[in-house]
Design goal:
The complex is a heterotetramer of chains A (about 325), B (about 100), C (about 475) and D (about 100). Chain B has about 100 residues and is mostly helical. Chain B is about 75% helix and about 0% strand. In chain B, about 75% of the residues are buried. Chain C has about 475 residues and is mainly alpha-helical. Chain C has 2 domains: about 270 residues, no CATH class; about 200 residues, no CATH class. Helices cover about 75% and strands about 0% of the residues of chain C. Chain C contains 21 helices and 2 strands. Chain D is mainly alpha-helical and about 100 residues long. Chain D has one domain. The termini of chain D are far apart. The chains are: A mainly alpha (about 325), B mainly alpha (about 100), C mainly alpha (about 475), D mainly alpha (about 100). Chains A and B meet through helix 1, helix 2, helix 3, helix 6 and helix 7 of A and helix 1, helix 2 and helix 3 of B.
């Protein structure tokens, strides 16, 4: 809670202004491609901000998911929109209206200004020191089975949130498939450079994912960062032209997608049947159980993210009426 | 002003910017970007204020909450993008019509 | 046996069973319909067991992970949650049965996993005692609801789903920012602890404002209802039944909990009268649009906008009687509105359209469906003996007792409007059109499901004393003035 | 300042200079090809210098390994992506800048 020295102040002000400026540019620039690229830059600056705020776990997640995968998803979506629509979108700049209508258009801005003023006042009025739940977390970290407090919260203290959240991810993919996905894309041949890159990087990314998973016990890392890295490997493979075959989609794909959520449910059931509370681990087994849950979650998150990037509904043979 | 307040206020600013753009921008992809900026703002307020513990280590609970939030955000974004593409395929538009009808 | 029922954490079962159902329907598509029926049945049974436990031993909390608040998340089951869970299980079972007849196989396989995730999310939401966990449950609910809305893939459905998605996103983001302010002010996410710690401050007001607006948007309170009619009108009929019957109430339930437990009167800058006034606007705007609607599902959707208006009358009244009335309305509306949408689904299945003027002798050709619609209409209008009658009676009583007769006037006028649009539909069902169209045979099970729900909504009025007694389990109204 | 700092700081500063030069090139050069030329070369060297500076300050061989690994990955990714962008630009028929 020290007051800032000059260098920090300059750094923080620059970062803060930069964030607001990039966000504004991303939302205001006339070309969509520009907006997306600026948005990815915004994500990277967010990651830097997380590091500045001592939240390295989030920084990793932001780089991998927030900037990386979201950026890839946005660019892929833009590429699939027809070329005509990628240029300046006409109604981002509406035609001129009468005075009354123009005055009415200012209404959101005025409203936003009021909301902003109220929020700023509320934030400034918060107590300057508040330990939140950090004391409780510290006191129970010893019996949580891991040493990284964030992993302890995610997989043990508030593991139930994570259980639901893994289902949100699965739900997004089920939702995409229920829309029928996208029509299959014609894949251009990858070319030698991309092919080599995919061949070299895929094992590296898998190794990296395993490292994140293992590192999450002690320091920054964990299932989400690892899963996102696996997802990135999946995206790279797709860019290099790899496509899931029908057999893969029918059995393997489903099995891996379900692995994470199913393990969570099994562990939950097990704890209930054993007469404990939901997801209550015995301290001596906590570490193993958390690693088990995280391994399943990593696989499922990775494949789900890759599947979301793929966008097409895989041909699994169930898509007929009988 | 402390670092915590500064970044928390930037977070408020991002929330408002995103909300405003979600209102006034018509293009669906832009609206999706706006929603992402909005959620980044909320996360920033959450994490910035978590440093007010008075000790070196920040409160880890908000960090876990934000990681949950980031995963939720990417799921929603992915779904929203496919929905947008389906609409573009169906209507040739990347905007929602002002009035809705059959 | 009895010990097991009264000590087992049934709330946990209510969350795990549908999650498992979703995974298994996804993994084994060949037997999905049997898995679905068993899951839905297991849900009903678990709710009954939970009810037995709550009635015999009172409300209970379940410390997830064994940590307990404030560090861990606690599940919380009392009379209020029981009511919502029961509505979810009954409507959920009906919709599951109905969907097996309604959807062709391919669509059914896409529907079922998402549908059970929606049920799991709703149950998780009604059982949660933690404001951040509620956010995750809200997102799961919202995303599932949007995905189901878009399922048919038609132009109107896709556009409605997109609009719904943005509305639900803004709603949850705004709610989450409220959670952030609360957490950083009071250092906890647990309802019980917050109830003790919360005091009036700028951050509290902002948080309550953000949460209320976000949740009102998700509940589709006038004038934030713009997304609801297209979404509920263009989703497949069983989905509309769940959206109007259950999903809209989920966000309203959180709002109730917040006002009842975390922010009792005096901590808020938003007067209840303001929300009540918006409610009155919703009643008349929704009623008027329902009268003007030319398509049946759109009419029913606007009727939901109107009913949501009734819900918000509880905030200015805020007595025990008023709370009873509104909770009873939530329950009876869930059953009646689901019945109406399922009946509309039958008509669409039969005739291929839902244009009200072209209802070609529906009364003769689908008598059970029309009976279901009319019975549900009785409940919606608030005629005795329907559940809606008891609810509105209680609310009128509350407003007269507190000397605020104008809310009672709005309630009664609203009922007249509701009567008008219900009769409009019933009237056209007896007419004969010149153009005869090709029709399909409606599976008997679909007709029975709609009728059963409608009957339940009417019979609810006859056994009103039970739900009214259950509401009191856990003493959630302890801090509310009696009159 | 410790003795290792006297080696590290010049390395880091010169690394930053390379980055600045590269960024200036990215902003000021006339077309995609020349911009990539400015960016990739100077950034690869700049990052190399920064990594070298950090290696001097590193506590363990594990950290040194990680740093070198990062540099290698960025080299690989940078070169490949530059190649892909150029290929894409040529396929679209983006003309090379001539004076």
């Amino acid at each position: 809670m020290d007051t800032l020295n000059l260098a920090q102040w300059v750094f923080d002000s620059l970062t803060g202004t930069g964030l607001l400026w990039l966000a504004w540019m991303a939302l205001a620039s006339p070309q969509l491609i520009r907006a997306i690229v600026i948005f990815v830059a915004f994500g990277l600056l967010m990651a830097l901000t997380w590091v500045r705020l001592d939240a390295v776990d989030i920084a990793l997640a932001e780089v991998a998911i927030g900037a990386g995968l979201t950026g890839a998803l946005l660019l892929a979506a833009l590429a699939k929109l027809t070329a005509a629509q990628t240029e300046i979108s006409k109604s981002d700049h509406r035609p001129r209206d009468g005075r009354a209508v123009r005055a009415l258009r200012q209404l959101p801005a005025v409203l936003m200004f009021l909301v902003a003023a109220g929020l700023v006042y509320s934030v400034l009025s918060l107590p300057p020191v508040s330990s939140g739940l950090s004391v409780e977390v510290d006191a129970n970290l010893g019996t949580s089975g891991v040493e990284n407090p964030v992993t302890a919260v995610l997989l043990n203290f508030r593991g139930y949130d994570t259980l639901l959240e893994i289902f949100v991810l699965l739900l997004a993919l089920l939702g995409v498939w229920s829309l029928g996905g996208l029509p299959p894309q014609r894949v251009a041949p990858a070319g030698p450079v991309l092919h080599t890159l995919a061949v070299v990087l895929t094992p590296v990314l898998i190794l990296l994912a395993a490292y994140f998973l293992w590192a999450g016990v002690k320091g920054p890392g964990g299932a989400f960062q690892a899963g996102a890295t696996l997802g990135a490997a999946g995206v790279l493979l797709q860019l290099a032209g790899w496509r899931p075959g029908p057999g893969f989609a029918r059995v393997h794909w489903r099995l891996i997608l379900v692995a994470g959520p199913a393990l969570f449910i099994l562990v939950a059931l097990f704890t209930i049947v054993a007469g404990r509370h939901l997801l209550e681990y015995a301290p001596e087994h906590a570490g193993t159980l958390i690693l088990l849950l995280e391994s399943g979650a990593t696989l499922s998150i990775g494949l789900t993210l890759a599947g979301l990037f793929f966008g097409e509904r895989p041909d699994d043979g169930y898509d007929n009426d009988n | 002003m402390t670092t915590e307040t500064l970044y928390a206020l930037v977070g408020v600013g991002l929330f408002i910017l995103g909300l405003y753009a979600l209102f006034v921008r018509a293009n669906l992809l832009r609206k999706i970007l706006a929603a992402n900026v909005m959620s980044s703002g909320v996360f920033l307020v959450l994490v910035a204020l978590a440093r007010r513990t008075g000790t070196v280590a920040p409160d880890p609970v908000p960090h876990a909450m934000v990681i949950t939030g980031i995963v939720v955000a990417v799921s929603v974004t992915a779904f929203a993008l496919i929905l947008m593409l389906r609409i573009a395929m169906k209507t040739g538009q990347t905007e929602l019509p002002d009035t809705w009808s059959e | 046996m009895e010990v097991i029922i009264t000590t087992f954490p049934w709330g946990v079962v209510l969350i795990l069973v549908p999650l498992f159902g979703a995974l298994s329907c996804f993994m084994w598509p060949n037997v999905a319909r049997y898995l679905a029926l068993s899951t839905a049945f297991a849900l009903v049974m678990s709710v009954i067991a939970l009810a037995v436990r709550l009635i015999t031993t009172g409300s209970y909390r379940h410390e997830i992970g064994g940590w307990g608040a404030p560090l861990g998340i606690e599940l919380f089951a009392d009379g209020l949650s029981l009511l919502m869970l029961a509505a979810t299980a009954v409507v959920g079972f009906a919709v599951t049965v109905y969907s097996i007849g309604y959807f062709p196989n391919r669509q059914l396989l896409r529907f079922l996993p998402i549908w059970f995730l929606l049920l799991a999310a709703l149950n998780a939401l009604f059982l949660s005692g933690d404001i951040f966990n509620l956010y995750v449950a809200l997102e799961l609910t919202g995303l599932a609801a949007v995905a189901l809305t878009a399922m048919s893939g038609g132009r109107a459905a896709l556009i409605a789903a997109m609009r719904y998605l943005f509305a639900t996103l803004v709603g949850s983001m705004s709610y989450l920012l409220g959670v952030v302010l609360i957490y950083h002010s009071f250092g906890s996410l647990d309802f019980m602890i917050l109830a003790e710690r919360v005091e009036a401050s700028p951050a509290t007001w902002s948080a309550l404002g953000l949460m209320s607006i976000g949740l009102a948007l998700k509940t589709a309170l006038f004038p934030l209802h713009f997304w609801l009619p297209p979404a509920h009108a263009s989703a497949p009929a069983p989905v509309s039944a769940a959206l109007s019957g259950l999903v809209v109430k989920a966000s309203f339930y959180i709002l109730l909990r917040l006002w009842l437990e975390v922010f009792p009167a005096g901590h808020s800058l938003i007067p209840g009268e303001f929300l009540g006034a918006l409610g009155v606007c919703a009643i008349f705007w929704g009623g008027l649009q329902a009268l003007r609607a030319t398509r049946l599902k759109l009419l029913i959707a606007y009727s939901t906008v109107m009913q949501v208006g009734y819900f918000f009358l509880v905030f200015p009244l805020a007595t025990v009687v008023a709370w009873h009335g509104v909770l009873f309305l939530l329950l009876s509306h869930a059953l009646a509105k689901a019945a109406m949408f399922l009946a509309a689904g039958n008509i669409i299945y039969f005739a291929g359209h839902d244009r009200i003027v072209d209802f070609d002798r529906i009364a003769q050709q689908l008598p059970m469906t029309l009976a279901a619609f009319a019975l549900a209409g009785v409940c919606i209008m608030g005629l005795p003996p329907g559940g809606g009658f008891i609810a509105k009676w209680l609310m009128v009583q509350a407003s007269l007792e507190s000397g605020q007769w104008w809310w009672a006037a709005a309630l009664i006028l609203g009922s007249l409007v509701a009567a008008a649009y219900v009769f409009k539909v019933v009237g056209h069902s007896f007419t004969q059109t010149t153009v005869r169209e090709k029709t399909n045979v409606v599976p008997v099970l679909m007709e029975w499901t709609a009728l059963a729900l409608a009957l339940a909504s009417v019979l609810l009025g006859l056994v009103a004393s039970w739900p009214l007694a259950w509401m009191e389990i856990g003493g959630v109204f302890a801090g509310v003035p009696a009159r | 300042m410790t003795p290792s700092d006297y080696i590290a700081v010049p390395l880091l500063v010169s690394g930053v200079m390379f980055f600045l030069a590269g960024s200036a090139g990215l902003l000021r050069f006339p077309d995609v090809y020349t911009r990539l030329h400015a960016l990739t070369k100077s950034d690869n060297v700049g990052l190399g210098l920064i990594v070298a500076g950090l290696v001097v300050e590193a506590d363990s061989w594990f950290v040194v390994g990680k740093l070198l690994f990062i540099w290698l990955l960025v080299l690989l990714a940078g070169a490949s992506v530059a190649n892909l962008i150029t290929k894409g630009a040529m396929q679209r028929g983006t003309r090379m800048w001539t004076r």
